[in-house]
Amino acid sequence: MNSARTTARPATWEIPTPLGSFTALYSDTGLCGLSFPRTSSRASQETAPPARRCEGEVGTWMASTRAALEDALSGRKPGRLPPLDLSAGTPFQREVWRAMLSIPPGKTMSYGEIARKIGCPGAARAVGQACGANPIPVLIPCHRVLASGGRLGGFSGGLDWKRRLLGLEGLSPG
DNA sequence: AATCGTCGTTCTT
DNA sequence: AAGAACGACGATT
Predict the structure, then answer these.
(1) Nearest nucleotide (C1') to the CA of residue A131?
(2) What DSSP line would sit under A51-69, residue for residue?
């Protein structure tokens, strides 16, 4: 084996879907990022090299990522997710992200409810921040987190995406 | 609609 | 290291 770090830096992988081409980002321990399709307005910004092959465990991660994404985008419940590398987050953020993973498709929670669920009542606003820092939207379903009273709240990927993702699950808030 | 309380993160001293 | 500023909030007025 080569020195210290084997896999080295993350690799990107494009996942074409009917809604555009998503970009997955992998570290050596799992899926660490997923970005929405680039719109014509938003210019490109590739920081990691594209993966050349889909072999080994990373290959299986890619397969499960694509399957899960395709399921999610067609309104089906995703099956097994690839291992997620959430090491970039703070402990608080990771708790929020894990909590969101427990919201089933078609259901929603409020920012305040998430806050209480993770034992930080009163931290609703901080939860919102953490949602905005979610590195793996869609698969970590931050779109299922709404403001109180069923209001839509915000979405870092653009509210149009939030509405679209909710619509795929039969929901139409706000 | 405007305001205030709250809390984790990030940006400034 | 400490403080101010800043949100994908929530509750009150």
Answers:
(1) C8
(2) P----HHHHHHHHHHHHHH
Nearest to A77 by CA among A172, A173, A168: A168
A91 closest-nt by C1' vs CA: B8
Tell me the pLDDT tens digit for each residue of A92-120.
999 999 999 999 999 999 999 999 999 99
pLDDT tens per residue across span A69-88: 999 999 999 999 999 999 99
Question: Taking 70 as the threshold, does the pLDDT of residue A154 lie above it?
Answer: yes
| A147 secondary structure, DSSP code | -
Q: Is A131 a catalytic residue?
A: no
Q: How far is the CA of A1 from the C1' of C8 (A)?
A: 44
Chain C bases having any atom below 7 Å from a protein CB:
6-11
